[in-house]
């Protein structure tokens, strides 16, 4: 039993009390466009997480990307499907936010951007109606918002030049709905591929300094959820801890010991886990007892159905 575990120390996220620092990361699992009993079971079994951030969820039909069977928050049946999930997680004593996702990839004109920002707000209001404790704006990977931030993906419109403006406008608008709002960034994800499999790519200083400027401007948020380098490197988080005073969730490649070290040293306020939560619904207990972890079988990542999921 790890008595003085930093990961098991409660912490407040704004006015939300997290009983521990073990966060479940948003994880695409392709189990249906409308959340079902299967989703309820999946999330409920992980309700002991300090915070669940539910999988990337499309804000509108236009936001849908290449993955099939990913849920949304734009149709009434999705709102009520999610409500069943959040009610159960809350009944079990948990906390659950949801990641709002737009895959991007077709050039956007200014009216489309304006409409897209409105779609983020509608999805955030729907997230509240669905009982979520807040939303995370996906600005990671190769998706819409990152397409304005990441020099390898950059595209321009007349009104929205490459840079942080789209993200900042989305954040302002969504904050205006009264939601608790976090953001996920991946400054080290420089591959143009949607699978983050480029461990040796090192972002150039220009890229990192762009993200530095952005991170300095995020202090009104509930949290910053930061994906570290693909090749695990705890030191990479030092840069962001210096720039960001708020609640920092570190992610990518952590195990119990490195997560303990990150929280104990103050480098992060919490650590999120994807693959460990897939294979270990009781991850918090396993960490507490320093038990061995099960290993996820990737073959079931996107298959649909209960196998490898619940
Ligand atoms: C991530 O943000 O780490 C991420 C997003 C989408 C994926 C995989 C990883 O498909």
UniProtKB/TrEMBL annotation:
Q: What is this protein called?
A: N-ethylmaleimide reductase
Residues spanning the membrane: none
Q: Which GO terms describe its molecular function?
A: FMN binding; oxidoreductase activity
Say yes or no: keyword Oxidoreductase present.
yes
Instruction: Return the EC number.
Output: 1.-.-.-
Recite the UniProt keywords alphabetically: Oxidoreductase
The record's listing under Gene3D superfamilies reads: Aldolase class I (3.20.20.70)
Q: Which domain of life is it from?
A: Bacteria
Where in this chain does the record put each NADH:flavin oxidoreductase/NADH oxidase N-terminal domain? 7-105, 108-288
Coiled-coil annotated spans? none
